[in-house]
Amino acid sequence: MAIDQPAFEALAAGVFRQLQGDELATLWLEAERSGFVRINRARLRQAGETTRPLLSLRLARGARQATWSVVLTGRAGEDQATLAAALARLRAELDDAVEDPYLLIARGPARSRSAAALAAPDAIELAQALARQAHGLDLVGFVTSGPLARAFASGATGAASAGRGDDGPGDGAGDAEALHWFEAASGFIDYSIYRSPHRALKATLAGPDLGTDLAAAVDAIARSMEQSARIARWLDLPAVDVPTGEHRALLEPAAVAELLSMFQWDGFSMRAHRTRSSPLWRLHDGQARLDPRVSLAEAPAEGGAPRFSADGFLAPDRLPLIDAGGPGALLVSARTEREFGVPNNGAPPHESPQSLSMAAGELADADALAALGTGLWIPNLWYLNWSDRSGARITGMTRFATLWVRDGKVVGPVAPLRFDDSVWRLFGSALEALGATPRFMPDTSTYDGRNTGSIRAPSMLLRALRITL
Amino acid sequence: MQSASFPGVDGDAAVLPFPKRPPACRDYVLRLVDRHWTALAVRRGVVQPAAGGRDRGAMLTAYTANGVGWAATSDLSAHGLAQALDQALRAANAVEAGGLFDGVELALPQALGVRRASPHERPLPSRGALLDMLRAEDAAMRAVEHVVDSQATLRLIDSDETLWRGDALIARQRFAWVEPNLQATAADGGAAQTRSLAGQYNGFCQQGGAEVIERSGLVGAGVRIATEAVELLGAPDCPSGTMDLLLAPDQMMLQIHESIGHPLELDRILGDERNFAGGSFVTPDMFGSYRYGSEALDVTFDPTRPEQYASYAVDDEGMRAERAWLIRGGVLQRPLGGALSAARARAAGFALAGVANARASGWHRPPIDRMANLNVEPGPDGQTLDAMIASVERGVLMRTNVSWSIDDTRDKFQFGCEWGRLIEGGRLTRVVRNPNYRGRSATFWRSLAMAGDRSTVDVMGTPFCGKGEPGQVIRVGHASPACLFKGVDVFGGAA
Q1: B270: which of A466, B75, B396, B464 is 20 to 30 A away, CA to CA?
Q2: Can you give A296-353 as a three-state secondary structure string?
Q3: Chain B within 8 Å of A335 (Cβ-Cβ)?
Q4: Buried (b) or exposed (e) across A89-120, using 16+ Cβ within 10 A?
Q5: Chain A, chain B: beta-carbon pairs less than 8 Å apart
Q6: What is the pTM of this model?
């Protein structure tokens, strides 16, 4: 990872020692060391490793602020010099900056540490194990593992210190006023098995499902491959043509997670709500409600994400966002607190939920196909977007092993279908039942870096899903 | 593009302690990226805090006889680079042991010694002057009644990128990317509508200096954008039905991107992306004969247009970049595949000529097939926009992408625009909101009736093309004329 907690604290102290007058500085660290391996046709396609500690240094003086981001090297002397140069640069920028009426940084001593003891097996060894067990199959997949960290530190000239643990304020120059550290060793295996060019199934192994050593991971891969073999048999059945129109549908948790991920796009942002950019503004204005069985919360304690924001504020363990079909809280960042006069709740600047958790229902897994009767069994959705953002209408595709079910029995696979339907129907009038067994799904996206986000969701049985193409 | 002198790229990028090649390593490539960025924004009348940064690091790519592996590090010391090379070699050995590249001729890049810099007609104004410009447009938007949100933004990126084979220079390139935008949201009662300069995801973006801002039309556009957002509030929803569809370049860029660009990426066709971004409805045997579109469809891969967003001289695998026809007269010619993908296709029995499109989003990601600049060429017999409108009995003109969704083989799509206007009896009539359309890539381009003339061309692009495992967001360019399609399934919004 190149940067551990002592190294981060030393860098922070080096910055804080240089502060002058009424200056306040914060450091925000996003660091990872990640092994990345791709597999195509059950053989390694691309393998490598990235070590990238990103640090954003913010300097505030009065109501002025500026931020400069750098990549650390892991060599203390060079990194200290880089930050000293960044500080000088920011100081010069503040001389010309205008006052920022929305500047708000958490003040006062605070300290937290979250470090999972979990170790992640080596990515290349995991990929080789997966490829061996997939011998003879058309498996394409992605494996990643390694440590990652998030950290925040703030300091000001003459500020009270966060101290060390519970032993009271520190007394050394350069001590952080607040310091929060989060680290985890994580990884996942995400793979698809193709039975023919357009028929495939998908599986993801992560967290406890993957295990902490290679032997446990190999066992987990074997169990996953057995489950995949059962689904593969259905994919080999003759395809079923499904006409456009409304069909009953059983959405597996991964498909529900795709729908919920649309709410991460300004759905629970106070700023988006106040500027009418939120697709769920009708819910929060009291003009629409969802089914009373629908409850959603932001739950970092369940999801394993850090609770602190880049402004140093702490999110609650659990924040209800949709409560029994009605509006719950909205996510409020520090900046939004100042702009709209609403107390912040530790939300990140983009006000997007990181650890969404949806309440389960009563439909047992064993009863789900019988309850569906005749309709679509959809394991995954894909490429969702708002087709009418203000109207909360979503379009997207089915993907992977979508099957047609008649009288509770699988008939055969279905080619990718396009749906176009509204949130008010999907989570409202068309909702027939929620699954009893929610599934925890870590965010497997790796754009720019690995994520700490997750979604926990049950399956959903819909009376009607609108298929349009 | 090449000449004797290029501002900022004449000298050495840095004095790097190039690591010694281990005996087991056939050779290695070192790619150094040193990128500075600045973000300026004014939102709802408030100058947003100054933000910027520097992202600097190197990728070592190790080659063995039948393997390639990579490692990326921000530690550019002798120890850091040597350690990264060891990691890259371990990865290359693992790939070779897997055997995917058995029988594939892995060609190493040549030390071309190429240098290129973005065009730069006029220097950018000072930060203060740029903020004044953004403040003025933001104020103009806010002054329009019913506008509840507004933002004027400018993102500037300067990237110095050098590629060596061992310690021999392949290419040094310096990019100046400029991303201006305006956005206004209007709300009244139960409706909200957003309008932007060229898309909410920076559909206008080019290489250069102050001239890019001028070409974007940002200065003075605030009132128009806000007024159009308010106009959409009171407009009816786009009608549903099968009708003619006239797409402006700021929607054509998305149409090209999703339903020509991605399906022609050779790594998708070879199956690499099937676990994430998806495969393609295009198969290797289609090249040279498949009718992708009507005879009016001509598509080029063109990294040579100086100001376009993804122009460059050499790709990140070290292949010299040249213009190539991908679709000519509607017939599919060649894929978007870099040197490695083309070699893999050849080993599989498909003699496909590739293009220099192996690109990485940064120093921390390996090159994969990307579309770079992918352009629809203006029709040799193309018409003006007015003439195209006059030819339509019943249809809709759509501007500025706002929604996009397409299946994993890049066939079934549904796209939406910010702004629509009906065409009735050869004339533009009512403005309509939430204009959407859907179709299939495999047949949609065959309904292309007319590609407009040069007067209708805009050079667009996006900084946000996502693909790959690990994920990469990269810059692409799309120049296009306005295009007229016949018999398209069009519809509007409302739940």
Answers
A1: B464
A2: EEECHHHHCCCCECCCCCECCCCEEEEECCEECCCECEHHHHHHHCCCCCCECCCCCC
A3: no
A4: bbbebbeebeebebbbbbeebbbeebeeebeb
A5: 255
A6: 0.95
